[in-house]
Amino acid sequence: MSQSIHSQNLPLLEAVCRRGVLVATSVRYWRGCKRLNPEDLGLDPAHVSDRLIQLGHKRLIPRDSLQAFALIESRVQATVEGSSFPFLGGLGRFVPNPRLADMTDRLEKLRDEFREATLDFVAGYGPLRDQALVEWREAATHMNGSAERLIATIEQSFPPAGDIAKRFGFETRLFQIAAPDNIRLEVAEGVEQLEVAEDRRRIADDASRRLQADLDGFLRESIASLREETGRLATEVLATIDGSDNGVHQRTLNRLTTFIDSFRTLNFAGDQQLEQTLERFRRDLLTRSAEDYRNQPGAMQSLTDGLNRLRENAVQLARSDAREIVSRFGQMGGRRLAAVG
């Protein structure tokens, strides 16, 4: 890799790696579904119109039998998304260091819940399967077609009791991305090997250029998302206050305080302008209680004026170019490389 490409990409990547890690989570569980075909019902596919009849996936067991796993899966997704940013088109989620401990603690608790739910499900799988088959047999008697063929298909769709536990899994992986390195041949014998080495250098350089553009886009999107979320919150709080007969509630003020605390831990790119704006908002308008605001009409006006300013500021920042923040962020990585070089 040429020195120009090396110096262009690594500082930004180094800064990203210093500020957080990537996380990938996987929640697997048996979905208890079977896609039925016309043959499963003893019907002739040639006489079944897809325009009129669509069999699709059918539940083998009642929905509530797997509700605990669906709930855990949604909570895992919410936990990760609330603590991270999408990285390079879905490669993973980028978690800033200040959010990492809290996120992993929550995921560990959800992992424990998943393990307990799995043990309970596996223990009760046999009776659950038997009861589901009883209900399917009853339902099959009211269907046109071959009830025997349908029941045989359903029975075969249930995993054996000894294998059902393998259908469940909860994994969390933390990792960091690395720049494509220059690939050199230890010994170059003849023109063919030299050409292979040159091809590899060219591919690595091209990949580094794409990585630079991807990282730049990732930082800009992360900065914009926090700015947009700030404007959205201010809008929602203003609507809540406007729709309330009693002014502002304490839970609304607590929501603003929680958001500002969360912003500080997510602001890995260093959006100083918005962070300072939020801190001024906290200092000037969140030191009063909701009761104080309700008892002082002038104070309520100050709060709504402040929320309007915050919204306008956030919207304006979201529409602006974050080039300066990205440049300053990359310089942090450059200083790190200079120190260890």
Describe this structure in words.
With 341 residues, the protein is of the alpha+beta class. Helices cover 64% and strands 9% of the residues. The protein has eleven helices and six strands. It has helices at 3-19, 67-81, 97-123, 125-140, 147-157, 190-242, 250-266, 272-285, 290-295, 297-319, 323-340, and strands spanning 20-28, 33-35, 57-59, 85-87, 92-96, 169-175. Strand 4 (85-87) and strand 5 form a beta hairpin. It starts with a helix and ends with a helix. Residues 1-9, 43-56, 183-188 and 335-341 have low confidence and may be disordered.
Concise synopsis of the structure shown:
The chain is α+β, with helices and mostly antiparallel strands and 341 residues long. The chain has helices at residues 3-19, 67-81, 97-123, 125-140, 147-157, 190-242, 250-266, 272-285, 290-295, 297-319, 323-340; strands spanning 20-28, 33-35, 57-59, 85-87, 92-96, 169-175.
